[in-house]
């Protein structure tokens, strides 16, 4: 049986509702998973119930996380926040970190994973790292285009998924992981030092990617690998529960 993936989505107001999430559904279908969508405003008990019924979780991209969730107030450059989506995503991420349910976070999803673990974010890379030789992380190229390099740590589990060393990814973010949360580690960085992937140091599968592999698939088919890895982890967890 195909593993079932529970995916979060944003709100219509931000143009980030279910319509914007179809690329994730296509990627998970291609990887062998079946997606169901968790809507914002679900209660924490319902979130936990839904999570217990599925094999793995996907935290999708979207708007900025409310900095209150990592102990800060929003700077002028922090973007739109959606409190209901924050509540849903953080509940999903905390469930995954608490139980070991396999989870893949994409872009905002990676940031949510880090905040759920107790880490912090750059609210705005261009203003907070203005003194440094920053790459263009909010690319003006088409979404599928690989615009900057990342280096994947050879000791990371991400290296087993995508290979160690340098590769190119797309980049559609102005925020990023700042302080890595306890229980997580850096798996890849851009050349300017910006964190591009985090993963759990524990035994489970928890991976956050700052880029958007689902948007690259048509031109870079090898970017299916992280989705396949999530599905495999979901299968393995199900067998383990068996
Ligand atoms: Mn980037």
Q: Between the first and last Cα atoms, what is the distance in angstroms?
A: 13 Å
Q: Order of SSEs, N→C?
A: EHEHEHEHEHEHEEEEEHH
**SS class:** alpha/beta
Strand order of the largest sheet: 2-1-3-4-11-10-9-6-7
Characterise the protein shown here:
The chain has 242 residues and is of the alpha/beta class. Helices cover 32% and strands 20% of the residues. It has eight helices and eleven strands. It has helices spanning 22-31, 44-53, 83-99, 108-116, 125-128, 157-162, 213-216, 225-241, and strands at residues 4-8, 34-38, 56-59, 103-106, 121-122, 148-152, 165-169, 176-177, 184-190, 195-200, 206-209. A nine-stranded mixed β-sheet has the order 2-1-3-4-11-10-9-6-7, with helices on both faces. Strand 9 (184-190) and strand 10 form a beta hairpin. Helix 2 packs across helix 3 and helix 3 (83-99) crosses helix 4. It starts with a strand and ends with a helix. 45% of the residues are buried. Residues 137, 148, 171, 173, 190, 194, 196, 210 line the site of manganese (II) ion (MN). Manganese (II) ion (MN) is lined by residues 137, 148, 171, 173, 190, 194, 196, 210.
């Amino acid at each position: 049986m195909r593993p079932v993936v529970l995916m979060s989505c944003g709100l219509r107001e931000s143009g980030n509702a279910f319509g914007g999430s179809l690329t994730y559904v296509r990627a998970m279908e291609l990887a062998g998973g079946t997606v169901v969508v968790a809507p914002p405003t679900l209660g924490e008990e319902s979130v936990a119930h839904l999570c217990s019924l599925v094999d793995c979780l996907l935290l999708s991209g979207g708007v900025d996380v409310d900095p209150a969730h990592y102990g800060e107030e929003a700077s002028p450059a922090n973007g739109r926040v959606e409190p209901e989506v924050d509540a849903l995503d953080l509940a999903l991420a905390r469930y995954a970190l608490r139980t070991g349910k396999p989870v893949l976070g994409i872009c905002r999803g990676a940031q949510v994973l880090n905040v759920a673990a107790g880490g912090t974010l750059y609210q705005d890379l261009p203003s907070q790292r203005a003194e440094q030789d920053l790459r263009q992380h909010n690319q003006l190229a088409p979404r599928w285009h690989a615009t900057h390099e990342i280096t994947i740590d050879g000791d990371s589990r991400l290296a087993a998924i995508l290979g160690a060393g340098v590769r190119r990814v797309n980049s559609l973010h102005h925020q990023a992981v700042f302080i890595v949360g306890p229980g997580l580690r850096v798996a890849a960085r851009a050349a300017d030092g910006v964190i591009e992937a985090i993963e759990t140091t524990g035994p489970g599968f928890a991976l956050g990617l700052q880029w958007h592999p689902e948007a690259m698939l048509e031109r870079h088919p090898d970017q299916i690998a992280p989705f396949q890895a999530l599905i495999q982890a979901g299968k393995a967890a199900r067998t383990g529960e068996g």
